[in-house]
Amino acid sequence: MPKLHADSILLNGTIWCGFDEGTVEALAIWQGKVLVTGSKDEVLAYNGPRTSPVDLKGGFATPGLNDAHLHLIATGGGSTLDRCNAAGCAEPSKLAARYKREGQELTARRLDQGTRVRSD
Questions:
Q1: Average of per-residue pLDDT values in the chain
Q2: Which of 16, 37, 40, 71 has fewest C-beta within 10 Å?
């Protein structure tokens, strides 16, 4: 048995690992990183007493990046938005209210999937 035990093991679905490796039966995660991919038997060798199995129930998974951030200035926020403290503003309406209290006007805009910004 391997010395490391996975934190989580993904099973029972399609796991796509990229163009070079293609799909695999199972994937093990350790400390937030992919530990091993391969057949169900190969990956289950990393199962331990604290490993959490994740049953994909026939679903799809792929390791990757989730880079969900935006640059407010580049999306039409204006030059003064960078000076507004957004701490604790989990919703756009709260940020707009705080921005208005600081004597600024926040114009509602939205992004298309590309880089275009449209005014609503």
A1: 76
A2: 71
